[in-house]
Structure formats: C-alpha cells, structure tokens
Amino acid sequence: MARAGLTTERVTLAAADLADEVGFEGVAVSAVARIFGVKDASLYSHIKGVQDLRARVAVLALAELADQVAAALAGRAGKDALVAFANAYRAYAKEHPGRYTATQMQLEPEVAAASAAGRHAAMTRAMLRGYDLAEPDQTDAVRLLHSAFHGYVLLERTGGFQHTPRTADASWARTLDALDAVLNNWPPV
Amino acid sequence: MARAGLTTERVTLAAADLADEVGFEGVAVSAVARIFGVKDASLYSHIKGVQDLRARVAVLALAELADQVAAALAGRAGKDALVAFANAYRAYAKEHPGRYTATQMQLEPEVAAASAAGRHAAMTRAMLRGYDLAEPDQTDAVRLLHSAFHGYVLLERTGGFQHTPRTADASWARTLDALDAVLNNWPPV
DNA sequence: TCGAAGTGCCTAATATAATTAGGCAAAAGA
DNA sequence: TCTTTTGCCTAATTATATTAGGCACTTCGA
C-alpha cells in the first residue's frame, strides 16, 4: 500500500481547510482520516487527539491572521493603519470562518504564550503609535479595538445585523471612523 | 417506577445549568438524561435532538439576558444608562458562561425572529436616546456598542487580557468612558 | 547490499453519544 | 371501569474517540 505521507503539519492543514468548509465543530479525527484515505487510528501518531488537533488549527490560524494583519499594516500610520488593520482582520475572518472560530479556543497557557497571540497585541500597539496615548490608556485602547473587531466579526457572522437595511459594510466603515475619533480624543480620567 | 416528570422546560433548564457548569459543548442528551436519572431515549419526547436542545438553551439565555439588561436600564439615561446596560450584559456573561456561549449559536431564522434577540436592539436604541444620534448613525452606534461588549466579554473569557498587569475591570470602565465619549461626539460623514 | 531499527499505517477492541422504532405501564378522561 | 394518551423503557444502529499491538516499508550502518 502506498503511504499517505501523513505529517503533523499536513494533518493540521487539512483540518484547517476542513474547518473552513464545514465549520470548526466539523473538525473530527475521523473526518480528517477520511480526507487522507486513512484509518482514524493512523492519525494518532501525529496528533494527541481531537483537542490537540483543534488546538493546532487555532495556533495555525492565529499565526496566519497575524501575518495578514502585519502585511496590511506595513508602512501605514494613523487612521490609515487603523483601517488597514481592521480590514485585514475582518477579511481573514470572512475568508476563513472555520480557522477564525478556532482562534476562540481556550488554549493551554503555555500553548497560548507560544502562539502568535502576543503578536496581535504588539501590532495593535504599533498601530496606536499614530495616536497620542500613554499607558494605561494605550492598553485600554488595544482592548477596546480588539473587542470591537472581534465582536463585530462574530455578530456579523451569526446574522445579528440582518434586521436592518443598513449593510454591514457601511456600519463597519463608520465604526472605524468612530474608533479613530475616540483614539484622537481619548477621554481624560 | 416513579416518573421523572420531564418537560421541555425542565429539560431545557437542566441543560442550561449544565452548560454553565461544564461548558456549552458539554450539553449532551446523555448528560441531561443522566441528571434526571432517565434513559437518553426518553428525552426525545420532549426535544427533537441535541441541536434542538441547544437552540432552546440559546433562546432561554437570550430572554434572560434581555430581562437582566432591561431591569438594569430602568429609569436611567445617558452615560448612566450606558454603564448600567454594559455592566448588566457583562455580569450575565460572567455568571452564566455556558448560557452566554449558547447565545452565539446560529439560530434558524424563524427561531431567531421569535427570540429575544430583537429586544436587545430595541433596548440599545432606547439607551441611545440620551445621545443625539440620527439614522443611520444610530444603527451604526448600536452595532459598535454590541460588538464592543460582546467582543470584550469573549476576549476576557478566553484569557486575552492576561498578559498585562492592567485588570480587565479597569479597562472595562475606561472602555465605557471611551464609548460614551464617541456617542457624544459622533464623527460627521 | 544486507540486516537491524524505526516509522507508518493497519486491525481489533472499547467507550461514549445520538437517534429511531416499538412496547408496556401509569395517568387522565369518559 | 374502560379507553386513550402519555411517559419512560428496551433494543438496535450509527458515528466518533481512543488505545493496544502488529506487519510492512524505509532507512541507515556495516
């Protein structure tokens, strides 16, 4: 029999693609094994189990997302950077729904620390350099931005914005205007 | 044999409590059956299946959340109302992690329409009356607020805020200050 | 080039979960 | 009391996760 050529990376990648196709809940050991034309048990030499497989997809997605955002951010500053960051973030979530869902996983502390999660915060801070914010306001602003982006993307997906004629794109643009405005005019304590 | 006295409501409530205890993924027909000391198959007279059970938990949670927020909002206006709304929202998410997760479910259109999801938007609009926003800015503001609250609560839960000494509570308070500021100073087109 | 070691995928077995079909007994109504 | 309905059960099927142990292919040293 020809070997399937399984690797932890290849398995993870297949799982990530599967997640984007059928949703993150659909990421099962058996489903991935089916893709490779291999028995379920064969995957256990490469991954510890479903939880491990899913966590790997999460780590992959976090890294990809950080890459996309970093690329979009290159050479921009101020509102330009804010918009680029936000659009790259939202675009990734739309193109890779399953992967994006994976990023919501509760990762083990060590795994999370080793992941690209830290890069997000660093990039957001870099982006904020165009605004005049000292600590701890900067940290608070990072959290507000991240929350707004994350929340928007999720609500848009679950259809929370469908009961009004206003398009999600239009509100998104204005939301970025609003966030830019607060960053330029951060309330004093 | 004494009957367990199963009811769709009782089953849903048990599932909701279970969700808060072990997480929404842990809501299984078998687990709920175990709670009632009943066979799995017995639950199928009351619910259509796991998906149906989970959707019911989602609808319950949406209603409870709307109630909590409505109560907190009563008699308040302006920033006072904003803070009350936000705190009630976040408190519910913290006290009922499983139920809150359930609210993220993709509900069938008809179910979603019949649920309390609409009440949220209505309440948010009511809260915004203290600010001077015309359409479509009002809709955009509702979306920003909802996104920020939802995103904040989720990121806080997955531990996204743990890499900095700044507490989640402190940033939350400042985030509300910032949101109040934008609402008072919504950027012109 | 041959043989030892390691690796890759398989078979087999077990446990948990979801779901359907059909049955018996308890509760409710005439 | 008799009948109907309803509630929970048994039994069977299917899918998934996971572990243990085996055989064959690959690779690498001698």
UniProtKB/TrEMBL annotation, chains A, B:
Name the domain of life: Bacteria
Kindly give the Pfam families that the UniProt entry links to this protein: TetR_C_33
Query: Does the UniProt entry include the keyword DNA-binding?
Result: yes
Q: Name all HTH tetR-type domain ranges.
A: 5-65
- GO molecular function annotation: DNA binding
- Write down the InterPro entries for this protein, in alphabetical order: Homeodomain-like_sf, HTH_TetR, MT1864/Rv1816-like_C, Tet_transcr_reg_TetR-rel_C_sf
The protein depicted here goes by the name: TetR/AcrR family transcriptional regulator
Species source reads Cryobacterium fucosi
